[in-house]
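Build the 3D complex.
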Amino acid sequence: MTSLPLTSPDPASPDLTSLPLTAAQSGMWFAQALDPLSPAQNTAECLEIDGPLDAELFAAALRRVASEAEALRVVRVEDTPEGPRQYVADRIELPLTVRESGTDAEARAWMRADLAEPFDLAHGPLFRHALFRVGPDRWLWYQRIHHLVMDGYGYSLLVRRTAEVYSALVRGAGPAPGPFGTLAELVADDTAYRASPAFDADRAHWAGAFADRPQAPRLAGRGALPSRTFLRRGAQLSPEATRRLRDLAGRLRATWPDVLIAAQALYTSRVTARGDVVLGLPMMGRMGSVALRVPGMVMNVLPLRLAVSPEATFAELVRQVVLGIREARRHQRYRYEDIRRDLGLLGESRALVGPLVNVMPFDYGVDFAGAPARARNLSAGPVDDLTVNIHDRADGRGLHIDHDGNPALYDDGDLAAHQDRFLHLVDRLTDTDPHLPLAVHGMATGPERALVLEEFNRTDRAVPPTTLIGPIEAQAARTPDATALVTGDTVLTYGQLNTRANRLARHLRSLGAGPGAVVAVSVPRSAELVVTLLAVLKAGAAYLPLDPDYPAPRLTYMLQDAAPVCAVTDRAGRLPDGTGTELVVLEGLDVSAQPWTNPPRALTPAHPAYVIYTSGSTGRPKGVVVPHRAVDNRLRWMQHAYGLTAGDRVLQKTPSSFDVSVWEFFWPLREGAALVVAEPGGHKDPVYLARTIREQAVTTCHFVPSMLQVFLAAPEAAGCGAVLRRVFCSGEALPRETARAFAHTLPDVELHNLYGPTEAAVDVTYHACDPAQAGPVPIGRPVWNTRLYVLDAALQPCPPGVPGELYLAGVQLADGYLGRPELTASRFVCDPFSPAGARMYRTGDLARWSPRGEVEYLGRTDHQVKLRGQRVELGEVEAALAARPGVDGACAVVREDRLVGYVTGDADPADVRAALARRLPEHLVPAAVVVLAEFPLSPSGKLDRRELPAPVFGGDAGARSPASPREAALVRLFAEVLQVAEAGPDDAFFDLGGTSLLAVRLVARVREEFGTELTIGSLFEAPTPAALAARLETAGAAGEDALGVVLPLRTEGDRTPLFAVHPAGGLAWCYAGLAARLGPQQPVYGLQARGLTGDERLPRTLQEEAEDYARQIRGIQPHGPYRLLGWSVGGVLAHTVAVLLRRAGEEVELLALLDAFPAEQWRHRPAPEEGDALTAVLRMAGFERTGERDREDVLATLRRAGSPLAGLSGRALERIVDIVPNHARMMREHEHTAYDGDVLFFTAAAPRAEDWLTREAWRPHVTGALVNHDLDCTHPQLMRDRYLDDIAAVLAARLKELDA
Amino acid sequence: MASTPLTVARIRADVADCLGEDPADIPVDENLVDYGLDSVRIMTLLEGWRREHAVTAGFADLAERPAIAAWAPLLGAA
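Done.
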């Protein structure tokens, strides 16, 4: 072994000895270096001593122990070219505070305040003592030590030795010789290990055990950077419970920590819905080592990977823990940080482990000259996520359990819930046969279980035993002359509608239509469609809607599968021949001879009302049979909740094959309101819809959220606010941004979010959107006579906040799938929470309860997706692809809101796509089919969907060349937005795979490139590049590239231009609102960061960047006086530009800084990492970051919300994510020069996390006056309309003075 | 009160018991960490031996050299 010069006297201070840090210490050192002012590395403990204590002797004992324990004499830690080193002083002044009077509470407050103080590693010692007398014979001994020099076991050595020395001093005896080893021994031991073959073997072990880099299970559902503080909740496991725990451990031939670790693994598995759980186990790491006698930092965290399934028993899980720890212990010296680095997780800021279970069974059976002491840990070091600290003080009081949480992930309530459930689970586990399957254990506590099963589901409501049609007939009898139906210019009264439907119903009855039978209906949206649907119901039969646009094979399949007694169509030839179904063609059908009265029928609420087909995962669509009772309940609830009146008008625009149409058709007719029927195809055109709503005075309508987004983007939408009363959303997740946009555009209209599968009579939950709320929009509470269950993998109810699969029960459940008993049995399963015989429907949706009893939708558990509100089973698409000749293997995915099929084999992709288009409804036809040589596989041999190549969409490029530069530019934009290789000037946007969301993006790009406002509506009207070019021709106004260094926000105007420098993200778009407010005579130019386009490199310093901008400004305005403005980083840049212009001898008449702060305020703060950069990108778009984990998530949010930023090329967004941290870095390195002029300052005066920021810091850099204006908003809110109004008013006044 | 001294056989039996192994499978001269011995188990063993055999050795003494042969003199088992 090589001999290293481990210790050396420090030449600068001869009484200091210098040593390298051990690997364990280095980990702590790096953590502190990331945030030098953070107190997170503080560890602390308080000993409660009951008995008399001599403070003088106690101090003497502490001095003695400090002289024995080298770690306490580390007075400096600093980086050197050879790596970080620690400097140990021969002697130190004991940092001891003694308070001989005061209360326990005062002492605790003192400790809390002290614990919030960071140590300065450059100025030790790195510990602190305090001794409080809080009663005649009660003392508190507090110690705080930096984690870099001490760990939990180290504390136990210090405490034992202090008690020993003190007791000896009290006896008047000389203490036994010091028992401690030296830091040099630790360093040598560490060095030897890292050079040993064991080190390589350990590395290989861990690299192999986690080669697949499993996701860390996160109880909060996400990770976060470590915070400076932690939250703690403590609990005591009673001596009785502790005894039972030890008892169970004994029976399982394990230790109590093994049992608690297994319990935490079970809890984590269920709460995170993962079968593969990795926990972190802090280990003292001293077994068999000299470190047993060295107070210092040695501990390590080891990952323990466990497979947890509901079928396994607790005994098996405990056994797995015992064996897993045994295995881990053999490799316990290898550092956790090194494991993460080896796996490449460090670079990605990814954790390897979820919750930590920190067992501290250290021997604290000590007394101070006979006075017994009890130890309480106050801080066990940084908390990345959640740590369960378990202290066994061997004091007969049972175990003490502290749950510590990262406040970025948990609040006090969350922490308390996790702790209560854990203790509840431990209690149950110790009281249950450990050989039963884990499925018998639920994670919810008793009260939580009662809450989610009973309280949140209190929906019982007596309803009369009616049908869907009965109340409509009753209404017709009550108000025969009221308007029932409006379609185009035609108006039908209730009486007229009823009569027509009755006559047709009687005709259908003559063909066999009656209760229990099915009648297919294939009629485009029209008055005839409504008459037909009513007629089928009046006859007593269930209707089966057949979308006239569906391909013939699909229609044939449905007709054969459902076997209707007849099919009603508007004209001949609507349905494919040869199905054997009897046709009723309305065109030319004369039923006037039939009686006009309601037909008699033996219809009960149990009979089916309709059959609607949905996508089936095995490739066969399935018919959902919904009984009258279910839909009647649904409509009665809806009327109770929203109270439709005779004055209401409901828009019917949803295709009848989509179950939302059910309430549109029938709810108004049951309540005496009017039904306004939209034109066929009209539901896709926002301009038409807005006009119809206005002209027909529609009060109530429905939108799929993505279509609502498109609708709101149309300028015509705002005009609907005067007539609309309520809008319903369902069909897919409603983004909060869309809800917010709705509140902005239609402030007086209610927005309701509903949820439900076809299998449960349209909707089973409801939520009224509140513009004041943030976060995901809930799907809400259960409707009448409906129960919602969120269940975990063991079908046990999830407590509030914990995700699980959503199950539905109650009166609204469908009967099942037509003619598919096995499929029905697999989805409609036995409801274990209701009386025997009740069923529940397994939705496949992931959801969680909010504490208030609303459900939040989180996604799918399977491959079902929703595209524009339509259910798409990828399995069905895959089955259709695989059925094509020449296709060997197939898979389907949704990429950027478009369905893409992948196949292997020698099939022609265009033929495959065309074949599917002939067989499947439009929403199931892939926008592109890609042929692959083979599918990308993950290491485990599964299809790796993420590795599938992006599709290449193709247009008709061969047709003709663009006729004008504008046409050419639009062709390019089409190709870019649609990601097609080529597009022709006459290719229609929607034919090339365009979706409503891509339309939003195209419009944004057109706005950027041409500086022209274009609406989504105009894209419907002018869907090709040629048509759009013609439209833009008349619209006029051309602009420059919106990503260039100079962004001309307004070029006309005769005043001196205002130059506005971009904030951290580099874009100056945010100043568009300001430019608008400063009036038509004030030219405004934005300055934008280099590197948003092309390959420009990013600047290295703010000085370099400012010099560039000064040149750009002088290119536009060669000489002063200049007017400059900047927000955030832009303010610092504007200040520097002002200095440069003054140095060049120019006049600067305005320097306006918007909540910008100089470099030295930032210098010592940690720079943001990519996570923060992503937050900044979101903020630029006006969002607060919620669950977005990475770039992809952020892009998805922007796209969902239709943000213009999402219209940026992926590359430009990628660059923004680089530009933000580059600015953060340059900010911290910038050196200011004083500007000899005045500053107009705007402060975002709402309280902020960075409370140390102050505009006063500008004083050294500004020789003139600093005039401040406070705005009651946060930094990101400054550019919101409300505050821009104020800023613009102040600015305009100042500019006016300057102009005068 | 006099208590019975420990024997190597007794130590071995106790160790085996807390590791869930058969005494015959626990060698006297090998590192017990490889057999699953950890600090909690040492504490448990030590508590029992202190109670029943008047053992005075500390946790660090045992944890420093976790092998039965090394423990025997510390635990008073000749």
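The mean pLDDT of chain B is 86.
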